[in-house]
Amino acid sequence: MSAFELDERLARDTELVSTLGLCQLRILKDSRWPWLMLVPQRNGKTEIFDLKPLDQALLTFETNMVGTALKTVTGATKINIGALGNIVRQLHVHVIARSEGDPNWPGPIWGFGQAVPYEQPRQDEFIHQLLEALSS
Amino acid sequence: MSAFELDERLARDTELVSTLGLCQLRILKDSRWPWLMLVPQRNGKTEIFDLKPLDQALLTFETNMVGTALKTVTGATKINIGALGNIVRQLHVHVIARSEGDPNWPGPIWGFGQAVPYEQPRQDEFIHQLLEALSS
Questions:
Q1: Which of B67, B71, B98 is opposite residue A86, by nearest beta carbon?
Q2: Which CATH superfamily is domain B8-135 in?
Q3: Predicted-complex ipTM score
Q4: How far apart are CA B56 and CA B41, in angstroms?
């Protein structure tokens, strides 16, 4: 089995938060929404149903674990979960905390406007809270 | 256990295709994309992680089964899967076949333009092919 290789654009647009059983948990470099991404560490996969059944179950488990933690930390109105991949084909799942009145609410976040980078202390605090919620 | 009640807006915007183990499989009344929806037949659920673990696994199984069939039938470039629910809170999962050059490609479909109703024979043929792929 060859080492996992992350797509270049995903690497550029996100930062590693933690490594779970199957996925890399990453944060988008965009402070407009609390926006996370799960990337299964499997090369050459595009669709969720390209994964083996056990990996499909793991991805569901990790997505729901991260979604629960993100809702706890943010108090969001709704968690948005999406696997699109029209631009970057490497399989990845978005997990985003949405709240009434946030940018483009109630529309989708993808393709909307320009990313607004985090100020480092705010990103550090968010990641700290997230990891705490994930481990509790 | 009380009878499952479908949200009024989902009922208006979609038609029933088939009932799976957990979900209603429905088709959107919008011919711009081959666009399906899975609605777990559980009242009062908003997030995927509100479902019991067995139902989460079933939803994953049914989503991937439908995604696979949809890709087979359409030959789409990419299947888009999303659970947003910012407008309609009853838990529902979108499964959409996307192809290069389709409306708003490679952006998301949600919130884009106006629905274009199917001509009945085209919808009938699509559903026929889909059910055939699901049963094979």
A1: B98
A2: HIT-like (3.30.428.10)
A3: 0.96
A4: 12
Sheet order of strands, A78-83 included: A14-19, A23-28, A35-40, A93-98, A78-83, B78-83, B93-98, B35-40, B23-28, B14-19
For chain B, give every domain's residue range.
8-135
pTM of the model: 0.97
Chain B residues at the A interface, defined by Cβ less than 8 Å, are 46-49, 56-57, 59-61, 63-65, 67-68, 71, 77-87, 89, 98, 105-108, 110-111
The CATH class that applies to domain A8-107+114-135 reads alpha beta
pLDDT in tens, A6-18: 999 999 999 999 9
How far is A85 from chain B, CA to nearest CA, in Å? 7
The residue with tokens 């067995």 is: B54
